[in-house]
Specification:
- This protein is α/β, with parallel strands linked by helices.
- The chain has helices at residues 48-57, 59-69, 114-141, 177-189, 198-208, 212-221, and strands at 2-8, 14-21, 28-31, 38-43, 73-74, 80-83, 86-92, 99-100, 104-107, 147-151, 158-160, 165-169, 228-229.
- Strand 8 (99-100) and strand 9 (104-107) form a beta hairpin.
- Helix 4 (177-189) crosses helix 5 (198-208).
- Keywords: Hydrolase, Metalloprotease, Protease.
Length: 232
Amino acid sequence: MDMSDITLPGNPPIAVKLRRSAQARRLSLRLSQIDGRVTLTVPRRLPEREAIGFLRDKEAWLRGHLEARGDDEHIAIGATLPVEGILRQVVPGQGRAVTLGNGTIAVPGPEDRIAARLQGWLRTLARDRLAEASDRHSAALGLPYTRLTLRDARSRWGSCTADGALMYSWRLVLAPPQILDYVAAHEVAHLAEMNHSSAFWAVVERLYGDWRPARAWLRDEGGSLHRYRFGD
């Protein structure tokens, strides 16, 4: 597999990762909602001019989706980000604790530590919320989990292993509370059904209720939670 970089001219120009694959039989264009990366996969021997022509044909679609995704938000004083679904502006804090105000989140300390300190606070809040939700759903199901860990996972919001270990993305604490609760119910349901059968979804519905709106929110809006960059 060969990878190279090309640029689609325009205002602004769009950087595209060109991926040549011996298995590809047609051109396919992918925009990552996580980091905004554009990847064009093409058959190995396709001339580059044809790849550029394909991009030109898709330019309006691509620019529309890039605009809808928005730019990454680098966390610093003055930046905005959601906390439990409520958009807040980062402002300087007093004392030692991160505090929530009316549309603000106050973070004390030197400016070069603001992002790291806020990320640590958010991870602690996420652990508290996810442990509470997991405990509640586990008790309702009558099946215990073995441990709970947090990661900044890019490909999934949560997982459950065969030995009952739960993993969640800490970024769920940025989403509205019902979204976090749905993911917890989803993963705890795997303690009973290690699949996505109709029996599994019946367990999710018993624990959470109608899960379809929350699942649709994650599909449509979840990628935006990865726009917030904490210096990583």
